[in-house]
């Protein structure tokens, strides 16, 4: 259940955002017609990989674009910098709040300490964080998802589509968040066909090592799994997942995308025929909904969770070969219904 508290919108500051943020990452802003109070609107600070990852960060940007179009206000989106610290992230969020942006969202669990610190300094600004639920503050919305549920359905799809009886999972970084993807996927595979083997690999131990931002690492990992007979490979690796998809296309096997509908991503168009489906979480909707709640004067706060029941995690149906496979679609529908009813309890680790 969403917990709601009424938050006063922060006033706009006069300093230039570009100057304020020059020490902690690039920024782009979009100006629209401001409301009568002169308030600025939604600002997001990207996770590792930045805009253009065709996945997690781009989904957040889509939510920002929807809010900008609907509410006609000024928005900002800010890129991360290599080797930045938690203090750098907090400075970035503080700078956005000083400018009068509201809400301000950190995209990714790495912003946890930064969001907590900035929220304490600006109690009249609503902050959001995607993929973290550790912050207990009256002006913070923890935007989280049951990724393991969509991953379970991806596992069903992989098991039903594999001819070699070997499938692969590539995780960007060996952390609890990505363990959810792996656990759900492996359970979905095994519940569908216990004879199918799941190969799993994490690219790095920490995000700083590039696990979410290195397509070359993703490609190498996928190639290794394909050499071991994997004919479906699921990546939960941010920008690195593009390398997994590239490897799958080159070897004529299936890839399963993540977070966004990667079949529809323009940058991946030449590989789209090899993208079976994507395990999606609607980061765009979560970002937009938080902005709308602030615009309506009733900001979301506390844990705001998306799952199969709410429709905020799902499998994409863009690939006709996937959408038109009646047997596969029936298996996924059955699994989805059992998860929603509670008959299937999906593991998160």
From TrEMBL:
It comes from Streptomyces djakartensis. It is found in: Cell membrane. It comes from the Bacteria. Gene3D superfamilies: 3.40.50.2300. Keywords: Cell membrane, Lipoprotein, Membrane, Signal. It is a lipid-anchor. The keyword Membrane applies. Belongs to the BMP lipoprotein family. PROSITE patterns: PROKAR_LIPOPROTEIN. CDD domains: PBP1_PrnA-like. This is BMP family ABC transporter substrate-binding protein. Pfam families: Bmp. Residues 1-20 form the signal peptide. Transmembrane segments: none annotated. The keyword Transit peptide does not apply.
């Amino acid at each position: 259940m969403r917990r709601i508290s009424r938050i006063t919108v922060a006033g706009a500051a006069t300093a230039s955002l570009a100057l304020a943020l020059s020490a902690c990452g690039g920024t782009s802003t979009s100006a629209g017609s401001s409301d009568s109070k002169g308030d600025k609107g939604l600002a997001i600070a990207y996770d590792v990989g930045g805009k253009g990852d065709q996945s997690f960060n781009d989904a957040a940007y889509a939510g920002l674009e929807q809010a900008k179009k609907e509410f006609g206000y000024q928005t900002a989106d800010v890129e991360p910098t290599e080797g930045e610290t938690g203090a750098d992230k907090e400075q970035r969020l503080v700078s956005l709040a000083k400018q009068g942006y509201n809400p301000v969202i950190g995209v990714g669990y790495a912003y946890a300490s930064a969001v907590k610190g900035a929220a304490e300094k600006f109690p009249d600004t609503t902050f959001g964080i995607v993929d973290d639920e550790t912050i207990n503050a009256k002006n913070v919305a923890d935007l989280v998802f049951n990724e393991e549920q969509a991953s379970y359905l991806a596992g069903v799809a992989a098991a039903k589509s594999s001819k070699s009886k070997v499938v692969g999972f590539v995780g960007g970084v060996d952390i609890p968040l990505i363990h959810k993807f792996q656990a759900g996927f492996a359970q979905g595979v095994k519940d569908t066909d216990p004879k199918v083997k799941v190969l799993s690999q994490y690219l790095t131990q920490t995000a700083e090592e590039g696990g979410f931002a290195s397509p070359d690492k993703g490609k190498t990992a996928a190639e290794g799994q394909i050499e071991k007979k994997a004919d479906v490979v699921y990546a939960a690796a941010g920008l690195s997942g593009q390398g997994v998809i590239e490897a799958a296309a080159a070897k004529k096997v299936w890839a399963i995308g993540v977070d966004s509908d990667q079949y529809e991503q323009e940058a991946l168009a030449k590989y789209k025929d090899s993208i079976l489906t994507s395990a999606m979480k609607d980061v765009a909707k979560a970002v937009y909904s938080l902005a709308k709640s602030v615009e309506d004067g009733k900001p979301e706060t506390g844990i705001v969770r998306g799952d199969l029941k709410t429709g905020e995690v799902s499998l994409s149906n863009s690939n006709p070969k996937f959408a038109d496979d009646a047997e596969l679609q029936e298996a996924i529908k059955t699994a989805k219904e059992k998860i929603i009813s509670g008959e299937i309890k999906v593991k998160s680790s």
